[in-house]
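Continuing the series of single-chain predictions for the mutant panel. This is the parent chain; the variants come on the following pages.
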Amino acid sequence: IYLPAVFLEFTTPRVLVMEYVDGIKASNLDELDAAGFDRRELSARIADLVMKQIFAHGFFHADPHPGNVRIMPGQRVCFLDFGMMGFLDLRTREVFVDFVWGIARRSESSVATALLKLTETDVEPARGPFETDVAEFMHQHFYRAAGEIHFSNLVTQLTRLAGKHQLRLPPDLVVMLKSLSMTEELVRKLNPEHDLIPQIVISMATV
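Parent structure:
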């Protein structure tokens, strides 16, 4: 990873002055190919860096669209524009681990319990109908071949599921899910075969 230096002597509360970075935009496939970069390696590296920010540190770049990610010599990944950052406390990260591990074990009950802990509500939903909808959500998104799972679709359906049962997703969690969706879009542009879900599971071992 490479982070631009900050020039504090020129920085004020209203202006942030940083080093100019001469790199290739992460979505410019023709330039990356011409420069001899390994796009499969880059996709894995970018995803790994985002995972570590979220699950190891709980402080992450919340706007990793292609314009904010540049590729430098040596396969180094440079993140730009830190105007939008996200934060997840340790409890939320631990509960999200339970949520994903419940999915991995195909345990609708565990996933439902974790989702209730991740969300906010005035009245807890009836357990039976809620677990039924959670099971349907899992079948739609996780019991299929790798490469057929799209994280952006997963986030949309998860939001609908929560809304149906009067559950509110905390803003920090929404920011994290959107960051992962943007990461998936970028890494799949680099490597259409890249599957983000298993990488999330592996990264959670650090929590």
